[in-house]
Specification:
Number of domains: 1
Distance between the termini: 9 Å
Strand order of the largest sheet: 2-3-1-4
């Protein structure tokens, strides 16, 4: 079943032919920095042969027929989470500005 993963943090797009072994083994420097900073990570791709995505930050939730169907996050909490992620990501060495990311996670 298809689901969506929602993160506040940073998102990277990797080419379909990227070497994902470091992601699989946890040796990717971004995964290691995230783990050290106690940040959540998710990586995957939408379709076989498609681009890979890596998200680092705070997982807001997973949504779909096999996950949560709905969730409410007050705007004030979302803004506070964004500021917290900005500080924690920067301290962990991530230079990108955090954002709200919604990524489909399809079974292919």
């Amino acid at each position: 079943m298809d689901n969506f993963v929602v993160y506040v943090g940073v998102r990277y797009t990797l080419s379909p032919d990227a070497d994902v072994e470091p992601l699989e083994t946890g040796s990717d420097p971004r995964l290691q920095a995230a783990k050290k900073a106690r940040l959540k990570t998710w990586w995957g791709r939408l379709t076989d042969g498609g681009y890979y995505f890596l998200m680092v930050g705070a997982e807001v939730g997973r949504f779909g027929s096999e996950a949560s169907l709905a969730q409410t996050v007050p705007l004030q909490d979302l803004l506070k989470l964004g500021e917290d992620m900005r500080e924690r990501l920067k301290a962990a060495g991530f230079e990108e500005e955090p954002a709200l990311h919604v990524q489909m996670e399809a079974e292919y």
